[in-house]
Amino acid sequence: MQPSGHRLRDVEHHPLLTENDNYDSSSSSSSSEADMADRVWFIRDGCGMICAVMTWLLVVYADFVVTFVMLLPSKDFWYSVVNGVIFNCLAVLALSSHLRTMLTDPGAVPKGNATKEYMESLQLKPGEVIYKCPKCCCIKPERAHHCSICKRCIRKMDHHCPWVNNCVGEKNQRFFVLFTMYIALSSVHALILCGFQFISCVRGQWTECSDFSPPITVILLIFLCLEGLLFFTFTAVMFGTQIHSICNDETEIERLKSEKPTWERRLRWEGMKSVFGGPPSLLWMNPFVGFRFRRLPMRPRKGGPEFSV
């Protein structure tokens, strides 16, 4: 069933699909690529959704402690205003980057595009080898890997992150880098404010440094310090590894598997430009670039509606 002149390789040696095969035609490449451009990408994974909600709750908690425990009770008006604006801007940018990472298609290859018609449209050269994923029945582009959680092959897949409930791949790596950067910056800012707050409370004998009682204030500040340290350590390491991967044009999976590059590498600034788009500018720091509202298609099922991915 394979077209002559080229070879098809996969792990399980599945034959090419034909139009008579019992595969969900709604997932075919002809319709999926047109529809996915206008759909919100969302992974229905229980662990990932819990982790994503926890991320938001922890950021909201940090914002609550910074605003209502440390800044509003302060007698220094400009100290409260400046630090409040900076911290809340960082929190908004971090959560916006988190949403863009979670709801952006990371570069999924259309399901079931390993059809005879699609193969003929590729106009392959004689002897050219292509690969088919036996799990999602798609033609795997170079550097694509299958994610068992997303149940799709992802172009330039770096890893699957439960904290953003999505894979980090070709199309959303930029937002993941911004998310880790803004979380790290807000964590540092919160830790600095906690240090000043402890000094102020000790000097004032815990009488006028907060609207809360001293025991509650101590508990809230200690928990925020622990959260800030953990968040900063994790996101700073992730930010560094992501920048290193981008500058070396090598994903984490490719590094762990020690895959030899068969592609032309884009090193350093060329890699950064390919991920963030265009020459260096302040737009690189903006998670709202390219944002547009998309429709949320719902598919009725017996267990209730759920997002289409």
Indicate the structural class: mainly alpha
The total strand number stands at 9
Strand percentage lies at 5-15%
Helix content range: 40-55%
- Tally of individual helices: 8
Overall geometry comes to elongated
Poorly predicted runs of 5 or more residues: 1-32, 298-309
Mean pLDDT: 80
Strand order of the largest sheet: 1-2-3
Brief descriptors of the model:
309 residues; mainly alpha; 8 helices; 9 strands; 47% helix; elongated; disordered N terminus; membrane; transmembrane
What does this structure look like?
- With 309 residues, the chain is mainly α.
- It has a domain at 41-107 and 159-285.
- The protein contains 8 helices and 9 strands.
- The two termini are 30 Å apart.
- 34% of the residues are buried.
- The model is unreliable at 1-32 and 298-309 (pLDDT under 50).
- Pfam families: DHHC (PF01529).
- It catalyses: L-cysteinyl-[protein] + hexadecanoyl-CoA = S-hexadecanoyl-L-cysteinyl-[protein] + CoA.
- This is Palmitoyltransferase.
Topology of this protein?
Layout: E1 6-9, H1 29-36, H2 46-71, H3 77-103, H4 116-121, E2 128-133, E3 138-140, E4 144-147, E5 152-155, E6 159-161, E7 166-168, H5 173-203, H6 214-248, H7 252-256, H8 269-276, E8 298-299, E9 306-307
Parallel strand pairs: 1-2
Antiparallel strand pairs: 2-3, 4-5, 6-7, 8-9
Helix pairs in contact: 2-3, 2-6, 3-5, 5-6, 6-8
